[in-house]
Specification:
By secondary structure, this protein is mainly α. Helices cover 78% and strands 1% of the residues. Strands 1-2 form a two-stranded antiparallel ribbon. α8 runs antiparallel to α9.
């Protein structure tokens, strides 16, 4: 899929240069961002969803399937670029985020206006472009027309669910809703739906899978997707920046209402420990939170048992997902690979 993605981006950046060399350079930055890292989880789940529904590497449409599912990385690129801008994140994968990089380009060149505003505008446009190119790449992948028709439901639902989850995330940060219910709703749509559930559904639809297999895939994907995000929440506070590529505590500074924080707040309330609750809520959304402040939050999360509770939820979700997978008629080697991916996605360190 890396080859397919690289070839497609080279073709589109060349076309962008024909509009104007400056636009071509901007799209090269987008290509570098998309190709510059990432776990490639979404196309991987889509591939094994297709294989598990009877798709074969020897099938004449196999290369077209690879091109189609590689478009998911452009969708991911759009989401990350916009998410970093909304969260005012400075780094991604150990490098400056897109809006920061373009702001620096503006400042270094001594252009007119505010560098930060230019950086934000560039990030919005390049994120939009990644979303457009994702659709273009998928539709021109060479999939048979009947397969493309079958993918309409998961492809459309996935994009709307992603944006709906992103909106709820922003809304919760603005309203200060720190409930577990609200955090899980964001996890369900912002992460689970488009990371695992819908990619599996997409692969199954390409193969023409029956409704029972699609339903099992979706149960598996919803649980693993939420567990994946819960692991991300833990890494956002307890992870090693050298491994994760993001500063420790960034989720706290950005004001993310995660299940980890929600669990801690609820436990503090149950204990009547208002000092711990107040300290947590003061840290969430505090852009000046330093290393010492992050360490104090870690201590509170550990003392309240919130971190352990999230670990237990991850284990429970992984178990229920594997149960759903085991009841479905998933062809090998896809059944084994999906089970392995479930464990890898929920036990990772970055």
């Amino acid at each position: 899929m890396e080859t397919a993605l690289t070839a497609y981006l080279e073709e589109r950046t060349a076309g962008s240069t024909a509009i104007d060399p400056a636009f071509g350079r901007a799209t090269e930055s987008l290509a570098d961002f998309v190709l510059g890292g990432g776990k490639r989880l979404r196309p991987t789940f889509a591939w094994w969803g297709w294989r598990g529904a009877g798709g074969s590497v020897d099938a004449p449409e196999a290369l077209a399937v690879l091109r189609a599912i590689s478009a998911l990385e452009l969708l991911q690129g759009a989401a990350l670029i916009h998410d970093d801008l909304m969260d005012a994140s400075a780094t991604r994968r150990g490098r400056p985020t897109v809006h920061v990089a373009f702001a620096r380009r503006h400042a270094d060149a001594g252009w007119q206006g505010r560098p930060a505003r230019f950086g934000a505008a560039a990030a919005i446009l390049l994120g939009d472009l990644a979303l457009v190119w994702a659709d273009d790449m998928f539709r021109t992948s060479g999939l048979p027309h009947d397969a493309l028709d079958r993918t309409g439901e998961p492809w459309q639902a996935m994009r709307t669910e992603l944006l709906g989850g992103q909106f709820l995330d922003v809304l919760n940060q603005s309203t200060g809703d720190s409930s577990t219910r609200a955090a899980l709703q964001v996890d369900r749509y912002k992460t689970a739906a488009y990371t695992v559930e819908r990619p599996l559904h997409l692969g199954a639809a390409i193969a023409g899978a029956d409704p029972d297999l699609v339903a099992a895939y979706r149960r598996f994907g919803a649980d693993i997707g939420v567990a994946f995000q819960l692991r991300d929440d833990l890494l956002g506070v307890f992870g090693d920046p050298e491994v994760t590529g993001k500063p420790a505590g960034d989720d706290l500074r950005e004001g993310k209402r995660t299940v980890l924080v929600a669990t801690a707040v609820e436990r503090a309330e149950q204990r009547g420990d208002m000092a711990a609750k107040d300290a947590l809520l003061a840290a969430v959304g505090n852009p000046e939170l330093d290393g010492g402040g992050v360490e104090r939050v870690r201590d509170i999360l550990t003392e309240l048992g919130a971190a352990q509770a999230v670990e237990q939820r991850i284990a429970a979700l992984t178990g229920s997902a594997l149960d759903a997978l085991s009841t479905a008629d998933v062809a090998e080697p896809a059944a084994s690979r999906l089970a392995d991916l479930a464990v890898t996605a929920t036990r990772r360190r970055r």
